[in-house]
Design brief:
single chain; mainly alpha; 11 helices; non-specific serine/threonine protein kinase; transferase; DNA damage; DDR_Repair_Kinase
Length: 219
């Protein structure tokens, strides 16, 4: 039945991106449920997130002397498409998470065994997704709450809750973007290092110390 529905939607998907984005998470769940292609999906997701990071980095760091408006527009369009791709990935991860956390249905032992098996499939799939890469891509897409969620998972699973200098730098940048002055102050205190001028300026502006911020601009 599910296969028939997806097949019937093929023609629409080619011409309506919204339908494709709606169907994609459901299609991924069906693939995880009935096939052994989870590694392929993980590779695709990782490739999309890495591309998002690379394209945004190129646009932000490239030195432009004589700006070609057409080239700049094409790059911005490419960045927008990659951000949409990242958002599609996030919708997949959310859908798989909900699938894996669905409540135990009523029924016999076969129904319960299937439910346990599907929860295990979802959990194993999610553990293969690089949380740090998700956090970086979320930050670049300005999904700050999601970035914090994924980075906390990265610290918990990969760093044994230890926040090294690189992690502290990322958290400091994230809290600056979120206008979380307490978070920035906490990270600065933990690091024991003077904040960068940009971070200090953001702190002053967010706390209403506009005169100090103006003096910081003058320096």
């Amino acid at each position: 039945l599910v296969k028939g529905v997806f097949k019937a939607c093929c023609a629409v998907v080619r011409n309506d991106i919204n339908v494709a984005l709606f169907i994609l998470p459901h299609a991924v769940v069906e693939v995880l449920r009935s096939t052994n292609y989870s590694s392929f999906i993980v590779e695709e997701i990782t490739a999309v997130l890495q591309s998002t990071e690379r394209i945004n980095s190129d646009i932000q760091t490239e030195e432009v002397t004589f700006i070609d408006k057409q080239d700049l527009s094409a790059r911005s369009h490419g960045s927008h498409l990659f951000e949409l791709s990242a958002q599609a990935v996030f919708s997949i991860l959310d859908h798989v998470t909900r699938w894996g956390r669905s409540p135990l249905p009523s029924g016999g032992s076969l129904v319960k065994e299937r439910h346990i098996r599907e929860n295990k499939i979802a959990a194993e799939f999610l553990t293969k997704i690089p949380q740090k890469l998700c956090a970086v891509s979320s930050l670049r897409c300005r999904a700050y709450a999601r970035a914090l969620l994924h980075f906390e998972a990265h610290l918990r699973d990969s760093c044994n809750n230890v926040c090294d200098s690189e992690s502290a730098t990322f958290l400091q940048r994230l809290f600056v973007e979120m206008d979380e002055t307490d978070g920035v102050s906490g990270v600065v205190a933990v690091r024991g290092v003077e904040p960068t001028p940009e971070t200090q300026l953001k702190l002053l502006e967010s706390t209403g110390a506009l005169q100090d911020a103006s003096a910081c601009y003058e320096r």
